[in-house]
Amino acid sequence: MATATSTAEIDTTTTPHKRKPLTVAKRRQYRAAYLFVLPFFVIFLAMIIVPLFYAGYLSFFKQQLVGGTSFAGFANYTRALTDPAFLSGVARMGLFLLIQVPIMLALSLFFALALDSGMVRLAKFVRLGIYIPYAVPAVVAALMWGYLYGPDFGPFAQLSDALSLPKIPFLSPHFVLFSIINVVNWEFVGYNMIIIYAALRSIPTDLYEAARVDGASEPRIAWSIKIPAVRPAIVLTIIFSVIGSFQLFNEPNLLRILAPNAINSSYTPNLYAYTLAFVNQDANYAAAIAFLLGIVIMALSYVVQLSNQRKENQS
Amino acid sequence: MTTLTTDASVDVIGGNTARINPPQKQRKSTLLTVLMLLCTLYFLFPLFWLLVASTKSNADLFSTFGLWFAHFSLIDNLKSTFTIQDGVFSRWIVNSLIYSLSSAVGATLLATAAGYAFAKYKFPGGNALFSVILGAIMIPTTALAIPTYLLFARAQLTDTYWSVILPSLVSPFGVYLMRVYAADAVDYSLIEAARVDGVGEIRIFFQVAFRLLIPGAVTVFLFSLVATWNNYFLPLIMLSTPEKFPIPVGLAQWQSTSSAGSGGQALFSTVITGSMVSVVPLILAFIFLQRFWQSGLASGGVKA
Fold this sequence. Notes:
Number of strands of chain A: 2
Strand content of chain B: under 5%
Largest sheet of chain B: none
CATH superfamily of the largest domain in chain A: MetI-like
Largest interface: A-B, 108 and 103 residues
Structural class of chain A: mainly alpha
Radius of gyration of chain A: 27 Å
Order of helices and strands of chain A: HHEEHHHHHHHHHHHH
Oligomer: heterodimer
CATH topology of the largest domain in chain B: MetI-like fold
Distance between the termini of chain A: 41 Å
Number of strands of chain B: 0
Largest sheet of chain A: 2 strands, antiparallel
Number of domains of chain A: 2
CATH class of the largest domain in chain B: Mainly Alpha
Helix content of chain B: over 70%
Structural class of chain B: mainly alpha
Shape of chain A: globular
CATH superfamily of the largest domain in chain B: MetI-like
Number of helices of chain A: 14
Number of helices of chain B: 14
Order of helices and strands of chain B: HHHHHHHHHHHHHH
Strand order of the largest sheet of chain A: 1-2
Shape of chain B: globular
Number of domains of chain B: 2
């Protein structure tokens, strides 16, 4: 409407003549834009939105031994919220998150800052060496570390034997969570390092050249200038880590083969949902678990974003 | 000689201006270098172990020290890896290639077209659509895998190639990355100029914009490629025929049979050699395509 009146003011006589081609062009552009978005959106609907609603739908039903499925209301959800197997899995992932994510991000940030400071020799080799594990499939990483941890031919056990020291029980019930944390850190420290490093590289150097002239030390510059400047990248890595850790499946599922006593079928919520769906054949309850898990993850990522926005507003 | 003099002159200039403009190059720190090399060692030693272990016979794995070589039996290991169960391992490699290449090409094309539209067109509902897609980045893919499996089971799509490829075609993060990238890479004036020349919107995308979008698209391609190549959960639940497995699912199955020790279906040395073989191509790809990772991550990370 606004464009129509403004053109009308400029030239009243040609308005009907000029307006028409303009809207046709606009319409053509709209059509093109929808056409570009359409293929993605169709697949997006079919592979994300429909399964999401289907999971929600399934979670409200219940399979009975006699008479097939029946409406169950919130029964699956109340069952999940009082199910010790599910709750202990969620609690374990909370603990995992609290330990693993800070270690990983501290290491990634430190490595990125060290490489960015230009004080490290062989920087290219170091950067690639730390990043390479990201190229290793999670299954192979878990297999490899499983062997390394193993009491039979793992080098750690071999060293302990040679020095006649007690073996470290990497795969014992008490220790195995830390062993998994180590595998996950090994896989993802380099990836997060690269995200932060790339962000550091794009800070204009004159921002901290001045500080350097004033005699500020490298750690001081890192703390006061560089870290605040790469906050968005750090928040991104935190969100991805939250999403990743609550979905933990590959590493415990493979280490389970070696340590069936330490890792049970409900060790992580995802492992539990998998067991429910494919071993117990209880798709409805599995859908409720998957749905709850999704809600927990989305709520947590939202909290991370919100607290970041609040901090940004303060500064 | 010439290099010597230029070096000297650079040094002199650097020395003269040092007080006004400190040298760009930082002094190297031996302490920090040693520390970083030790850390790098931690990240590389498991791969070194894998390399060493893949050259050992199953008996030597148990009887010799893990981090050094023994009798060289890599060739025998490779032979048994590729011949066990009628050579199913080479089938898995082909499958992994099919899954990851088709998913990555598809996901990249879809994300590039959508990201370009979101960046360069203002259209009714565009912002709302984009926020929905952005919100979907938070949805855990594994939470979706089980309902997707149940839907596919109804459509009789499980245990087909499509059951792994179709869910891998959606990359909300790829759309986000391409929108950020397209916003800077394609200038409005270029699009306008093409429009004035009477070029249609679709031809503008394919003949003008696409070339400029390639570096960003390569990043999205690499992301999807690695994600699908490494994916375990989705193919694990979708597939039941071993001939359709990608490498990770196959290796995990070998691992459980070799650990169970039931009739020695697959030996540890076979699993280890298979792991080694599956890691090598990706590591090579990473080394040679480094700059794409960095540039793409920079544009996505900074503006997030």
